[in-house]
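Raw record, unedited: Cytochrome P450
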Amino acid sequence: MTSAAPARHVLDPTGKDVYGEIERFRADGPMVRVEMPGGRPAWVVLGYAEAVELLKVRNRNPLVSKDIAHWADFVAGRVPEGWPLLMWAVKAGMFTADPPRHRDLRSWAAPAFTPRRIERLAPVIEQIVADRLDVMATAAAAADGRVMDLRAEFCLPVPIETIGALLGVPDDLAGTFLLGADALFDTAITPDVAQARFGALLGAIETMVDRKVADPGVDLTSDLVKTLGKKDAYTREVLLETVRLTIVAGYETTGNLIDQAVFALLTHPEHLAAVRAGEVSWDAVIDETLRWAGVAGNLPLRFAVKAFELGGAQIQAGDAILVSYVGTGRDPRKFDRPDAFDPTRATRDHLGFGHGTHYCLGAPLAVLEAKVALPALFDRYPGLRLAEDPGTIPANPGFITNGHARLPVHLGTTRA
């Protein structure tokens, strides 16, 4: 396996200007050679059609694999221990598995995300949202109208508490889960900090699993524990990774969805008015948010199984590949006025939850959380408005997900 030519661009590990970066990269085409943290080269897929082609299921003749054994740099020893993205590629579970093993692992967790199970979670999510809004009201009254960070107080707590309820996370472990999930997405922190927080997260997951073995409940973790060993793939190691993946996939990305939808509506008051008047659906807002502000950012990692041509680029066997879901959502070859937020547009196509074999299993849960949280927020606070110039609100750290570092707002008038 050989590595392709040196990268033309450096992928900013802080992710501070993701949209500007995408436009600079796109000048070189839909497939761009970049340098990841630590100097490791990779391709970034920016084109919608190229991403769909790359992510197609090809059981007999795959172009790419999730198996790190196909990465030339890793096999050659050029990836140091502690490299910040390594944890996205080496853990044994759904995220890194190829068919047919991926199907077995996906089927293990799938019962937690059936329409009936998701429907049963609806009242739990409604209560979580109502409680967060009450906490915000109390905090706002105590702060005498000062600026509130809606991301910290609402956008992120709703999904992490929902995931906690789904998995049965004990209260005493919730803080460790939160810090560990944050570390996985922050590509700007030091490797030592990332490893420490990630290690603490894995330890907390093991503790939770041990408790469920001793005293199972009515949650996803308990269901997985009860079926350990029923298939060769259903091992304790894979169970731990399935729990970790559920936390990772369901936490910050869903928080970013709520964050970006609020930001989009507050910066496009004409569309907010249309939603409030019932002229535009919350489903349309959510789909357009997922296209306009892809919440998954640059998702690592896939590896070329063989040499192939895509989007004018010559991919070599062993090359690493990231998919820019922000870039695919703003592909001008696919979307008219791609940079415009417009929930009335005719097409709702987006790759916000991926495509193909690894399409997000928890997508219906994420959509439900947003559909509960957004109308409840705007109904409770009809005077909600941004407290800073939108252009000065920074992005969240790292290039893996796409949200804001903070979402400063004035809550305005409260509706009882």
